[in-house]
Amino acid sequence: xxDDDLADxxxxxxxxxxxxxxxxxxxxxxxxxxVAARAxxxxxxxxxxAMAAFHTLVLRRRFARDDLERIVDAVLLPALRPGxxxxxxxxxxxxxxxxxxxx
Length: 103
Hints:
Blueprint: H1 2-31, H2 41-58, H3 65-80
């Protein structure tokens, strides 16, 4: 359990301020009506921070302004734009059942 607590603390320290700043900006945009009604602001606010951490920790390269701009332009804005509301999530299809054999 201590490892989970440490991991949570590190994740919050690394991405918390970024995510909170993005969430604040997205909520302001939503209040102005410029964000899709069904946009998942909590999840979308974590995208840039997650990508920054991925670039830094996994790819071992600096997360530059042009990286952030690409994520905002290619991922966040299309997901937030009114009229681009995605269909609600659907359950995965149920795999066909094998025919039962009599005992």
